[in-house]
Structures are given as C-alpha cells and as structure tokens.
Amino acid sequence: MVAEKITQCMKPHGEEGYETIENMNENHQEISEYAFECLEVGKNDRILDIGCGGGVNIEKFLKLTSNSVDGLDYSEVSVAASIRQNQDAVDNERCKIMQADVCDMPIDDESYDLASAFETVYFWPEIRKTFKEVARIIKPGGQFMIALGTDGNHPDDEKWLATVEGMSVYTPEELEEYLLDAGFKSVKSSVKPNDYILVVIAQK
C-alpha cells in the first residue's frame, strides 16, 4: 500500500492520481513556502517548473514575474491538473504545460532564466546526466532551484529508500557536486532551522 502511494507520487495516474495531486499540494506547502523565501525571482524571468504536479507553484511564480511560466511533467494527470489550476494563464498564453521527460526535454538551449524542481529529484534517473539537461535549457546567469523535504539526514529516509525502488535521497554536498559537474558555476544550500527541508539554488 505504501509502495503504491509512492508510485503515485512518482507519476500520478488514473483516478487516484488526482487525489494524490491534491494531497501533494497540501503536504508540500511548507516546503514550497520555504523555497520561495530562499529564492529571488526577477520581474521579467521566464520560468519552468519541472515536475509541476498540480501546478500550485506555477501559480505562485506567475504572481512574481510578468513573463511566461511554463510547466513540465511526465504524468498526463499532472499536466491536466496544472492546466486546470492555471487555466487563465494558459488561455492568455502566459503558461504552457508540457508532457515530457526531464531527461530529454523538448526545449531549446538557454530558454529559461529560472528552472525549479519541487519534491521531484528523488525520482530522476541518472541524476548527473539529467542535471546537465537542466543546465542546457537555462540561460547564462540563470538559476536552478531544488526544494526537498529531506536534506539526506531525515530519520525516515532509510524507510522510504527500503520501500521505494528507484528512489534516492541526497545531501547538500552530493547535490552541489552533481550540479557543479553539470556546468553550474555556484551552488548555495539552505536547510530550514529545526527541520529537514532543503533548498538548493545553482547559478549558471
């Protein structure tokens, strides 16, 4: 049962997928709030939210930039939910939601000022290679922000790793190494005081 719930988190699908997205929107709220506290968004930034889930972070970004905010997810259910959450912006062509894999994004080089990944890199395969793909689509001087519910030291990490095949957790030091190797020039990590919430911001 737990494994099935995590499979839904990896890739929401079917009728249960919509319920999973609603739960994720609620359960990830604290992580999202801390991430936005750590991040500086430019008023003209073009933004891509990778693994956009239910689209609530796209909605937040739309309030911070006058430019477009797009989303990408490999779950059909997530794409539909994100479109519904941001229907006005989609209709006004300020937002486009793509169904695609982060490992091979149908996006031109240096397209975005900022890319974000909330609670999703746990499930990214070949993370070194995938980070290079993310670096490819970010403009020089742009940012890539990762927000996670664990800094690799959470007491429940081992339980989740034992339960979920293909899931990985990372320490700030590991993520910094992978991001620098992917071509980012600098990496800054923040852990919420008295918590395990981790925000990593890489500058290209």
Please provide a brief summary of the model.
The chain is α/β, with parallel strands linked by helices and 204 residues long.
For this entry, give a set of tags.
globular, 7-stranded mixed β-sheet, 21% strand, disordered N terminus, 9 helices, 204 residues, alpha/beta, Rossmann fold
Q: What would CATH call the class?
A: Alpha Beta
Query: Quick check: average pLDDT?
Result: 87
Quick one: biggest sheet?
7 strands, mixed
Runs with pLDDT <50, length 5+?
1-9, 12-18
**Which structural class do the helices and strands define?**
alpha/beta
Shape: globular
Total number of helices: 9
Question: Would you give the CATH topology?
Answer: Rossmann fold
